[in-house]
Amino acid sequence: MNASNNSAFMPDEDLLTTVLCDLKRTVREYTTAATESNCPSVRRVFNDLTMDTLRLQGELYQQMGQLHMYQTPGKALRQTVDQAIQSGQQTQQKCQQFVQQKLGGQNSAQSQGFDPQASMQQQNGQSPYYM
Q1: How far apart (Å, rounded) are the C-alpha atoms in residues 63 and 81?
Q2: 37 partner at 20 to 30 Å CA-CA among 27, 58, 69, 108?
């Protein structure tokens, strides 16, 4: 990309930042649509759209970083991330307990073969940072 494009209606950096923000917004919208879909095939389409959009957003983010158009955030301390994961797991457990109470002890997620704990396992690395 040419960062000094004078013939454009706006600087490349501003244009790419706008596109990046739109991709992030689109991911949120697709995720919402997927979670609210009742039809498995519609849900699958929105899941695929979400993953494709995340890939595009990641590629654009990397390109902008290489061109020094986007300030990359600092490294997150492992302890901070681990606390956020633990908090999320606690919230998930509370939600599961609430649903079990309301459904009379039936756990519909596990009866359908979904094990949220298996997908949330933590890895113990040696670096104090997540990247």
Answers
A1: 26
A2: 58
